[in-house]
Design goal:
Layout lengths: L11 H23 L33 E4 L5 E5 L14 H11 L11 H14 L9 H14 L3 H8 L3 H18 L1 H11 L1 E3 L2 E2 L1 H9 L8 H10 L12 H17 L5 H8 L22 H13 L7 H10 L3 E4 L3 H14 L7 E7 L6 E6 L33 H10 L7 E2 L4 E3 L4 E2 L4 E2 L4 E3 L9 E2 H7 L2 H11 L2 H9 L25 H12 L3 E3 L4 E5 L5 E2 L6 E3 L3 H17 L13 E6 L5 E8 L2 E8 L8 E5 L2 E5 L6 H13 L101
Parallel strand pairs: 1-5
Antiparallel strand pairs: 1-2, 3-4, 5-15, 6-7, 6-20, 8-13, 9-12, 10-11, 14-17, 15-16, 18-19, 19-20, 21-22
Length: 768
């Protein structure tokens, strides 16, 4: 029995025995490769294959993952996204120097041997046997290509990557088997082309085209001798020879490649010597991957496009299949984003809300009639640093957003539309006291709601009666509480759903009358798309972000189209247009009104001022602006936004001007059609109210005119005198305290409480 030599090495006898054994194994392997039907190898050790003949005969070659380019509607680049930064190119578009360099350094006999280089195999087996492990490889370019295919197929699965690269005899046997098949089916030139396109060169660059762009900012077909040698040298160890991080080591490796090219007669020794003296000549292009690199603040829209892709069955039967297809890349995606609109939105945001403010804003523009999302931006940029976020504040939770924000009074037009659809006239008036208890019970889809909740108007001077137009212009809460109590909750939620209005968190909308005041959380995209229905004469179109997709090889992919269905009658939509034009002309949204074109919209401010909104539209664009704290913690009272102080924030005060600026820029140079409207005679127009804030501009003066001043006035049961003589809100009388039947009934100047807030008024009505 042999003994170890001093120093722990094998004795001469052991070396000879191991060499004989390895040579025998090599012979068996090669025999098996040549004649696959000949007996099994019987390699039962872990990490080997048990039966050589059981290895599939055909190598599964997955499509190579490439970068995907996302474009705006005009063809401008928004961003490049990829799991592998790769651009596949044919061999004719790869410099001959590059082809020669990679063969010289990795497999000089590439064109002389078959799938396996017998000399190399025997040399490596002997070396590994002496070392007691796998310390040297003899892989041909074909074998390396096979290994890279398995690595590519493994993707980001660490366990599969480890299996694809494990240093075992079993893996090498499998690699040899497939190499034979590949050589037979593809041929040398196709193998070389595939190898150069699949190989990793470091710095996130997969394939020679991406590597050439990364290190030299040029096409692979334009690589010079010394540049090609540098890239070829990287393949053995991309991190060790990285020219960016270790230029000296990279230069040494490059010169080794140049010398090897001279030895195999690809170039002369003089050419090699001259090239060795040249500097590396790097012109590095930094990796630009992902939506974080998107232009014009379109990072969130870019991410929304990805979400659409991985969630829509149009791109694959299962989510796993769609994610795999997205990661495979190689697509050119043209989106609906209008660069003019996007720039306008971002400028309006930057001018009026700062990233470091306590609150944020999100703005989305949608095109009526097509559902195309034309712009999407927010004040906190896409990113991972302070005052940045990855949450898209414009969209629903399932699409990368948060749980949404209460839309406040911007929901009221949906209630008005539901009422009009049920035959309620726009002249309908309600007593609309300053403060009142919700009528109870109220019909719902499941039965009825009962409760004792109360609500009140923004200012104590807001005392009815009001008709629908003035109540909408002034955003009178008690009017809309009475309206939804009459028609029921179910018609409202049903119409909302037809308009694409659902909760941002994916939950069902609650069947409660308080939804009339916008208590259910929505996203800006949802609200913009809903208002586009009014602009589109009552036809709702689902939002879309993708115009077309071209896959690898120029293949067109089918993309989801908008689906348009009538949600309400044209007359209802035209009536809403009339009501909402009043908001921007003579109501809470005056600061949002556009000059030179028809516009309509609605302000919204939630309880405690956690959020403020303006949602509006023209015939050819609809937009929603939300301002608030995404975490619902900071009240917008005594606050600075965009460098300007505010005592209180209203929907018409901060969101309104943002909407106006964003829309004006987005529509500049575009047609200015008229909104279809109807004539609405408001039966209860009030005189200006003293002490009203900027968000609540007063209505026109109204004096006694004789006749019946309150057509269609409805006084809910139990409202007069309160429920028990101590009710919160009487229907007629005083200002915020009233008389028994006080007020000057004839000229509407003093509309009393009829029992007052506490049922003890003195009968002296007061005029606002």
């Amino acid at each position: 029995m042999g003994t170890k030599r001093s120093g722990g090495g094998l004795s001469t006898t052991q070396q000879v025995a191991k060499f004989i054994g390895v040579s025998t194994l090599a012979g068996a392997v090669l025999a098996g490769l040549a004649l696959p039907a000949v007996g099994a190898l019987g390699l039962a050790a872990k990490g080997t294959v048990e039966e050589f003949d059981e290895i599939p005969a055909n190598l599964k070659t997955p499509p190579l993952s490439e970068r995907t380019t996302i474009l705006d509607a005009a063809g401008g680049e928004i961003a490049k996204v990829y799991s592998r930064d790769r651009t596949v190119v044919p061999l004719k578009d790869i410099s001959p120097y590059m082809q020669q360099a990679i063969i010289a350094i990795e497999d000089a006999r590439f064109y002389e041997h078959g799938a396996i280089d017998l000399k190399g195999v025997l040399r490596a087996l002997n070396k590994n046997a002496q070392d007691g492990g796998v310390s040297e490889g003899a892989s041909t370019l074909t074998q390396q290509y096979v290994k890279n295919v398995f690595v590519e197929e493994a993707g980001d699965d660490a366990e599969k990557v480890a299996e694809a690269t494990e240093q075992t005899i079993g893996r090498k046997i499998r690699e040899l088997k497939y190499a034979i098949q590949v050589e037979k089916e593809l041929g040398k030139k196709r193998i070389l082309q595939n190898y150069l396109n699949i190989t990793f060169f470091g710095q996130q660059a997969y394939g020679v085209e991406a590597a050439s762009q990364r290190f030299f900012s040029k096409r692979a077909k334009d690589l010079k001798l010394q540049e090609a040698a540098l890239l070829a040298g990287l393949v053995q160890s991309p991190s060790r020879y990285d020219p960016v991080n270790d230029p000296e080591e990279a230069k040494t490796r490059r010169n080794i490649v140049l010398q090897r090219m001279a030895e195999v007669k690809n170039i002369s020794q003089a050419e090699a010597d001259r090239a060795k003296k040249l500097p590396l000549g790097l012109k590095v292009s930094r990796p630009k991957n992902g939506c974080i690199t998107a232009v014009e603040g379109a990072g969130f829209f870019c991410d929304y496009v990805r979400k659409v892709f991985v969630n829509d069955p149009a791109f694959g039967k299962t989510r796993e299949e769609r994610v795999q297809r997205w990661n495979q890349g190689g697509m050119t995606i043209r989106t609906t984003l209008d660069p003019q609109a996007q720039r306008s939105v971002q400028k309006a945001i930057a001018d009026q809300v700062y990233a470091e403010d306590d609150v944020a804003t999100a703005v989305t523009l949608v095109e009526p009639g097509t559902g195309k999302i034309r712009a999407m931006g927010q004040s906190r940029p896409y990113g991972f640093q302070e005052n940045q976020t990855q949450i898209n504040l414009s969209v629903d939770e399932a699409m990368g957003g948060g749980k949404g924000y209460q839309p406040g009074s911007t929901f009221k037009p949906i209630v008005a539309a539901a009422a009009l659809e049920r035959g309620v006239k726009p002249t309908k008036s309600y007593s609309s006291p300053y403060k009142m208890r919700y009528p109870s019970p109220v019909q719902t889809c499941e039965g009825s709601w009962r409760g004792t909740d109360t609500t009140q108007n923004e200012n104590s001077s807001e005392v009815g009666p009001y008709g629908m137009q003035e109540a909408t212009a002034k955003s009178v809460n008690t009017y809309y509480v009475q309206l939804i109590s009459d028609i029921g909750v179910c018609p409202v939620t049903t119409l909302a759903h037809r308009m694409g209005v659902d909760r941002a968190d994916g939950q069902k909308m609650e069947q409660v009358p308080s939804i009339t005041l916008g208590t259910q959380e929505m996203s800006p995209l949802t609200m913009a798309n809903a208002y586009a229905t009014f602009a589109n004469e009552g036809v709702h179109c689902t939002p879309v972000a993708i115009e077309s997709i071209t896959g690898p090889g120029g293949k067109k992919l089918k993309v989801p189209q908008t689906s348009c269905e009538r949600a309400m009658s044209k007359k209802t939509a035209s009536t809403i247009n009339t009501l909402l034009k009043g908001v921007v002309e003579d109501g809470t949204g005056k600061k949002a009104g556009l000059s030179g074109r028809d516009s309509a919209g609605k302000t919204g401010t939630t309880d405690f001022r956690y959020a403020a909104w303006f949602v509006g539209y023209t015939p050819n664009m609809a937009g929603a602006v939300w301002v608030g704290d995404p975490e619902h913690k900071r009240k917008m009272i005594d606050i600075s936004i965009g460098g300007r102080p505010y005592d209180k924030v209203f929907g018409g005060e901060v969101p309104g001007p943002i909407w106006r600026q964003a829309m004006a820029g987005a529509l500049e140079g575009k047609p200015a059609p008229k909104l279809p409207t109807v004539k609405v005679k408001d039966p209860a127009k009030k005189r200006p109210d003293p002490g009203r804030g900027d968000d609540k501009p007063s209505g026109r003066a109204h004096g006694g005119t004789g006749g019946d001043p309150w057509p269609d006035v409805t006084i809910p049961p139990g409202l007069i005198g309160g429920d028990d003589g101590t009710g919160d809100a009487g229907a007629i009388g005083g200002w915020d305290v009233g008389g028994d039947l006080g007020g000057d009934f004839g000229d509407l100047g003093g509309v009393g409480d009829l029992g007052g807030r506490n049922g003890n008024g003195n009968g002296n009505g007061r005029r606002p």
